[in-house]
Give the backbone structure.
Amino acid sequence: MRELHDELTELRVEWPGTPDLAGAVEARIAERARPRRRRRPALALAYGLAALAAAFAVTMAASPDARSAVLEWLGLRSVKLERREPTAPPPRPGTLGAGLGLGTPVTLEQARRRAAFLRVPEADGLGRPDAVYLGRRSVALVYGDRDGYARSTTTGAALLVQEFPARVGQFIQKTVGAAAGLERLRIAGDPAYFITGAHGFAYDDDAGVRFEDQRIAGNTLLVERADGLLIRVEGELARDQAVAIAESVP
Amino acid sequence: MVGRPLDENELVERARAGDAGAYAALVRGHEEIAFRTAYLICGNASDAEDAAQEGFVKAHRALRRFRSGEPLRPWLLTIVANEARNRRRSAGRRAALVLRAAGEERLAGEAAPSPEAALLAGERRDALLGALGRLREDDRLVVGCRYLLDLSEAETAAALGIRPGTVKSRLSRSLERLRAELGDADA
């Protein structure tokens, strides 16, 4: 039997990627040299959110600098948004959802067995998903034609719902293209973000940043639930439609 | 230690004189170990990033108090680890630390292990990390700092805010517990 401490020393741990601390620290030191308002602690952020909401989307669209300032002010720590042109391949024709890099096709029952975190939306008229994909740490539910939903040109589906077992404090990165607007919402008390316009999608679990195939996404609603489930609803959806679907997830 | 055009003492002097670039270079040299130490303590990457960033900003403010000629790394780790502990406390919950083993790194030309051998090695790595995750926090931290992060005893003491003498005794106790958790004692 090898010595335990040797085994431990030789163990290669898959650490999360180290963020660019030097750059961030240098920027903060440079900022401190100028008179400025101190960054507000996250708890204070709840105040004034409602008043801001209306102006928010407009500001965000108007200026990328305003975007980062507002995001910082809002304390969006676990969801980081950054502007980056999406570089997405067009969806490939074929089976619903195939070619979107969603994972392995499975039946709904298989997905339920293998991903205990899965909660299937129960919104009226949705019924069962037409295709289900199991990713490394995600499940994707793909819905074909449904009354009241337009078929998305980017996914070829009426609706794409993805769920990730996001642990508390998990860092999520969302890559938003230049044209995307962002609106911050609350759904049953949980922080949510409605993103319009083409954008890519990336999230980070503790093993590092993962890109969801960097494909261009339609309108997307992202809900960070307190129970640790991250829900992503994508389609040619109006905000309220997306919210209704997220709300119907038990 | 990565080779640097200026040695650490020179960078510290420049940073004290107000050279932000020099301080950034110091951070660059220590950001990985600081972030991982914070990650061990916080248990999640987002808090670890916050703690490490805040720690480096505070260290910059406190740079005048740093004694020239002393090693910088333990001093920085003390500050960053302290930030990490504050965040963990205020989080008010014990998020389980999840560590995953990376696949074995092979040198070019080296034969691939048989699938069975790779599977066994992988199982052992997962078992080790799993058992480590089930240990009490102080056991897990001392083992993590000393062996997974490869900190020296003095650096482990600095990061955990304990006396260097305590590191040794706590380590041997923690390894015993890890062995028991793994079931090696019966083997």
